[in-house]
Every structure is written in C-alpha cells, then in structure tokens.
TrEMBL record, chain A:
CDD domains, per the entry: TM_PBP1_LivM_like (cd06581)
Membrane topology summary: Multi-pass membrane protein
GO cellular component, one term: plasma membrane
Keyword Oxidoreductase on entry: no
Chief subcellular location: membrane
Superkingdom to which the source organism belongs: Bacteria
Record carries keyword Ribonucleoprotein: no
InterPro entries: ABC_transp_permease, LivM-like
Location relative to the cell: Cell membrane
A GO molecular function held by the record: branched-chain amino acid transmembrane transporter activity
Pfam families per the UniProt record, alphabetical: BPD_transp_2
Transmembrane segments: 35-53, 60-78, 98-117, 122-139, 170-189, 215-236, 256-281, 293-315
Protein's name according to its UniProt entry: Branched-chain amino acid transport system permease protein
UniProtKB/TrEMBL annotation, chain B:
Pfam families: BPD_transp_2 (PF02653)
Keywords of this entry: Amino-acid transport, Cell membrane, Membrane, Transmembrane, Transmembrane helix, Transport
Membrane topology: Multi-pass membrane protein
Recorded family membership: Belongs to the binding-protein-dependent transport system permease family. LivHM subfamily.
Transmembrane portions of the chain: 6-31, 43-60, 66-85, 97-115, 143-162, 183-210, 216-235, 242-260, 280-297
GO biological process: amino acid transport
Record's protein name: Branched-chain amino acid transport system permease protein
Organism annotation: Meinhardsimonia xiamenensis
Molecular functions per Gene Ontology: transmembrane transporter activity
Cell compartment(s), UniProt: Cell membrane
PANTHER family named in the record: ABC TRANSPORTER ATP-BINDING PROTEIN, BRANCHED-CHAIN AMINO ACID TRANSPORT SYSTEM PERMEASE PROTEIN LIVH
C-alpha cells in the first residue's frame, strides 16, 4: 500500500512519541512522561478494542474489564510476595506476571465471548458490559485485595534487562509494545482471517453461506483482543502501581470506545490518534475547570453526531458519510 | 433465618423491583419504539431526585413537590429528545451508546454545577416517616409501603395506558412497525417525543421516590441504569410484561441474595468459606443470571413478537 495521509499522520504521532519523552526529562518536565506513558498504554488497549469493534463490528462495552484483570494479574502476585520462587517457570516476576495477565484475559475472553457471541446487536453490547460489571463487583467485594479502596503494588514487575522503576524504561517498553500491537492488528486485519472477520461484520449470513464458521472466527478475534487488553492492563498496573475496581467501571469501557471512534474505527492508527486526542483534551480541559466533563461530554456528542470517521476521517479530508 | 427479617427483605426486594421497573419501563418503551439505546436515562432519574429535593425545600411538602416535579422532568425528557436523541434514531447502536454517554457527562456535570457536589436529603412528612408494627418483631417503615403502592399503581396505570388507550395503541403499533404508523398519517415525531417524555417521567418518579431514603446525589443514575439494562435484557427488549417480571425478579434476587446467600452457602460449605464467597457472589448475582438467561435465550425471556 502506498503511503497516504492517514499513514503519514499516524507515523508522525508515533515519531513524536518516540522522541518527546527524553526531551521532557531533559527539560525538567517528568510529569509529561507520565502523561505520555498513560497515553501509550491506553492506545494499546484502544488498538485491541479496534480489532473487534472497528474491524469485527463486535461492540464490546466491557473492554475495561480486561485492562483491570491484567492489572490485578500483576498486583495480586505482587501482594502475595510471589516474586521469587518462580524459577521453574520464570526467574523474573515480570516474565511470570505479564504472561499471567495475558492468559487470564484470554481465558476470560474465551469463556465470556463464547456466551456473548451467541447474541447480537444491543444484546451483545449489554452482555459484554454485564460481564465487565461482574468482574468489577467481584473485586469490589474481595476485602483481601482492598475491595473499593484498591491495592498498592509495592514492587513492579521485574524483567530481564529492563527496570520498570525507571520511568523512561517503562515508557519505552510501552511504546515498543504499542508499535507491536499496531503491527499485529494490522497483520491480522490484512490476513485471510481478518478478511473473514470484516466480511462477517458486513454480512454475516453471506460469510456463513460461503462456508465460514464465523462464530469461531469472531471468538478467536475476541480472545486475541482481550489478551492484548490484558497486556495493556499489566503495563498500566506497573505504571500506576495502584489498582482498584474503578479501572473496570463501565464508564472506563465507554472511554475506550470513545477513543476508537474519536480516532477513527477500523483504521490502523485511529485508536492511537483517539487515545492521544483523549488524553490531551482531558489534560487541557481539567486544567481549565473542574467542570471539564461538561465540555468533554458536549464534544463527545458533537463528534458522534458530526465527525464521521473520526480524526482519521478528517485527515483524509472526508467530511462525508461513514460506511 | 427468622421470618420477620425474611418478610422485611422480601418487601425491600419488591420495592427495589418496582423502582427498577419504573426506570426499565421507560427504557424498554424507548428502545421498543425508537430502537434507541439511551444510557442517559439514568440521568433523568437523578434529575427527578434533585428537582424534587429542591422543590421540597421551597414548598415544604414532599408530596406536592413530587406532583410538581413530574411535568418538569417530562419537559426535560421532551427537550432531550428534540435536541439530541432525534438525530440519533437512524444511527447504529454504537453511536447511540457513545452520544448518550456524552449526555450523561453533560447532565451529571450540570447537576454538579447547579446543586453542588454534596447530596441533597429530602425530609419526609411525619405521616410517612413512621413505622407499622405488624407483629412484635416485624416492623415495616410506612414510606416503604408507599413506594410499593406507588410502584404498583404506576405499573397498573402504565398497563392501562399501553393496552387500553389510543396513545397506547399508537405506542404498540409504533413498536411493531413505525414506518407503517407514520404512513397511516400519525404524527410519529410527536409520538416519539411523548414516549420519551413518558419514559423521563417514569424514571424521574423512581428517583423522587428513592431520594428520601438514599438522598439525591450526582451519579446516582449511573448505578441504576446498568441494573435497569439488565432488567430489560433479561425481560426481552421492548417487552413491557418482560420488564415488569424481570424487574421484580432482579429486585428480589438481588435483595434476598445480599441478605441470605451466606446462610444458604453455609448449608454446604464451611462458615469461613461462605462468609468470604457470599458477598462476592451476591454482588455478581444479577449479572450471572443475565448471562445465564442470554446463554439459553439470546432474545431474553419475553421477546416481543415483532422485532
């Protein structure tokens, strides 16, 4: 594919994210590194959601649950001081915790997806949300792990050669992960598998008639997406060193959906653009007024009503209709 | 478990179920006729509570305030339909979810601006504040009985409205085939606005009824809206009967689960295990039920015949 404006814009933002954080450090603004880290991690989660929501047409309203589960998969072993003695599996806690986060989320996606994908339309939206609420209330009611108050992660994941206590190292781990996530989703989307997923979004009956068991294809995409979001959650847990059920609140899932739509659903760099715009707008508005949810909500409504195709649609110069 | 506690919890469950029905009935009406997912429906529940609290402060009478607040909330619902919802009917559910999510942020923040971050309590008049002693151990607060009575009366009125009036006939016809209704010369735009306003009144009423118990607070709608969605999904979206049965079911299961699940668990596991697992399971119970229902019947328990 020849480079177009959308790809150029996406690569430009990635390039900015690659060079800016060290500059923030040198100029004495480490706060902006934190902001960039959060942005990149949320972009990974949004990219994973885009695979099923944008390309697959599966409107998951419970994606924050995977982020939360991933974070708890780091927090709970750390809480039990399980960061030694895993030599049989892995000699660094991180090489145990991060795969655990991915595995837990993949399993959760497999079990819940198997049920959710039996439903369609608004039922699907609501049942994915219901499963997320289940996880939310599960962690709200477990006193051991802090319930409502959340859990502090005393020790970040240890990884060979990377020290996550150093903000820049954590940031670049997240950044490289984001690039990989974008490449993975793009590869999946352009593969035969991805074509089936997109075909099923357009016309499920037709794909079935052509002999594809779209249910299995969709479920596989759902599991991949959940696992990726779990990975983002593991990074987020390491970044904030504090996890709470609030990470899984349904409004968080709504925010992830908004990032995807704001950036441009079913585009390679859309989720990144959406996450970046989201973080920047949130940061700017919340400095201006404590009532920043008001302009933010208005903007959300206006974007949905008038900006079809999101930021990517604007960059492409396409003011017309989505679809 | 003793009988008095059980009866009280049964009444609490019934009360929660009826409040849920008031919120869910509006949701299911709006979804059934307009095919519109309205996350912001819970904000109307919150606005109902706040408006009623303010009016109670001014007028001094809770009952009068409820009567005065109902048309106000209805007008707000009418305005929301005209300003925001109308543009979204032809969009897919994703756009509707996101736009109404934005609407929640706007309305919650407006409430914050107008009424401040603190909650507002509504004092009950003396004649509602008492308790009725049925037996020595069984004491029921009068106000809870009033909520149950109001809920049942509203449900009855709604069934009458939907099944035996001209407006109800149009609502049912609109739910079956709105294009046909419009083609028959009915002002479908006005019908949509009225249905939206009706839903707003019902949700607002639920908020007003609950406010004297829990007080009006920012974000109070965001908790009940999710449960109300569970209700209409379990009941079958667009079905009034389904919403009623599912609301009572969810209300009772949630309340009784929270009170008695640990006792039930103790029958087949150790006390310690029961006491740790019961709160977790009871908090998740309604979602487990919803998942189970959808796994077996993906269209809910009472899907409307025409969809």
């Amino acid at each position: 594919m020849k480079p177009d404006r959308k790809t150029a814009a996406g690569l430009f933002v990635l390039a900015l994210l690659a060079v800016l954080p060290p500059i923030f450090i040198w100029t004495g603004n480490p706060f902006y590194v934190d902001l960039a880290t959060r942005l990149v991690i949320l972009a990974i989660a949004a990219t994973s959601l885009n695979l099923i929501l944008g390309y697959g047409g599966m409107i998951s309203f419970g994606h924050a649950a995977y982020v939360g589960l991933g974070a708890y998969a780091v927090g709970i072993p750390a809480y039990h001081e399980l960061y030694g003695g895993f030599d049989a599996i892995a000699s660094f806690s991180g090489s145990f915790q991060i795969p655990l986060a991915v595995a837990v989320c993949a399993l959760f996606a497999l079990v819940t997806g198997a049920i959710c994908l039996r439903t369609k339309g608004v039922y699907f939206i609501m049942i994915t949300m219901a499963f997320a609420q289940m996880v939310y209330y599960l962690f709200v009611s477990i006193e051991e792990y802090g319930a409502d108050d959340g859990l502090v992660i005393d020790v970040r994941s240890e990884l060979p050669g990377i020290n996550l206590d150093r903000p820049l190292q954590l940031y670049y781990l997240a950044f490289v992960s984001l690039v990989l996530a974008i490449v993975i989703v793009r590869t999946i989307v352009n593969s035969r598998f991805g074509m089936v997923i997109q075909g099923a979004k357009g016309n499920d009956t037709r794909m079935k008639t052509m002999g594809f068991n779209t249910y299995i294809y969709r479920l596989t995409a759902y599991v991949i997406s959940g696992a990726m979001a779990g990975y983002a959650g593991a990074l987020l847990g390491n970044f904030t060193t504090f996890i709470s059920p609030e990470m899984m609140d349904w409004t968080r899932s709504g925010e992830l959906m908004f990032m995807v739509i704001l950036g441009g659903a079913a585009t390679t760099f859309g989720p990144l653009m959406g996450a970046a715009a989201f973080i920047v707008i949130e940061e700017v508005l919340s400095h201006v007024t404590i009532y920043w949810h008001l302009p933010f909500g208005l903007m959300l409504i206006l974007v949905v009503l008038y900006v079809r195709g999101g930021i990517m649609g604007l960059i492409e110069g396409r003011w017309g209709r989505r679809r | 478990m003793d009988t008095a506690l059980f009866v009280i919890q049964l009444l609490n469950g019934l009360q929660l179920g009826l409040l849920l029905f008031l919120v869910a009935s509006g949701l299911t009406l709006i979804f059934g006729i307009l095919d519109f997912v309205n996350l912001a429906h819970g904000a109307l529940y919150m606005l109902g509570a706040f408006i009623c609290a303010t009016l109670t402060m001014w007028t001094g009478s809770f009952v009068l305030s409820v009567i005065l607040s109902l048309p106000v909330v209805g007008a707000i619902g009418f305005a929301i339909e005209r300003l925001v919802a109308r543009s979204l009917y032809t969009r897919d559910h994703l756009d509707q979810v996101l736009a109404t999510f934005g609407l929640i942020l706007v309305l919650d923040t407006l409430a914050h601006l107008i009424w401040g971050p603190e909650g507002m309590a509504i004092p009950l008049p003396a004649w509602l504040d008492g308790q009725i002693a049925v037996t020595e151990t069984l004491v029921i607060p009068t106000y809870r009985l009033l909520i149950i009575a109001t809920g049942l009366a509203t449900a009855g009125g709604l069934f009458w409205l939907v099944n035996y009036t001209r407006l109800g006939m149009l609502i049912r016809a609109g739910a079956s085939n709105r294009t046909m209704v419009a083609a028959l010369g009915i002002n479908i735009q006005l019908l949509f606005s009225l249905v939206f306003a009706l839903g707003a009144v019902l949700a607002g009423l639920a908020g007003m009824l609950v406010a004297p118990i829990t007080e009006a607070s920012i974000g109070m709608g965001n908790n009940i809206i999710i449960t109300a969605f569970v209700v209409i999904i379990v009941g079958g979206i667009g079905s009034m009967k389904g919403a009623f049965i599912a609301a009572l079911m969810i209300g009772l299961i949630d309340t009784l689960g929270r009170s008695f699940l640990d006792d039930i668990f103790k029958l087949f596991m150790s006390t310690a295990a029961a006491e740790t697992s019961a709160p977790a399971v009871s908090a998740m119970l309604i979602y487990i039920i919803m998942a189970a229902v959808l796994a077996v019947r993906p269209q809910g328990l009472f899907p409307p015949k025409v969809r």
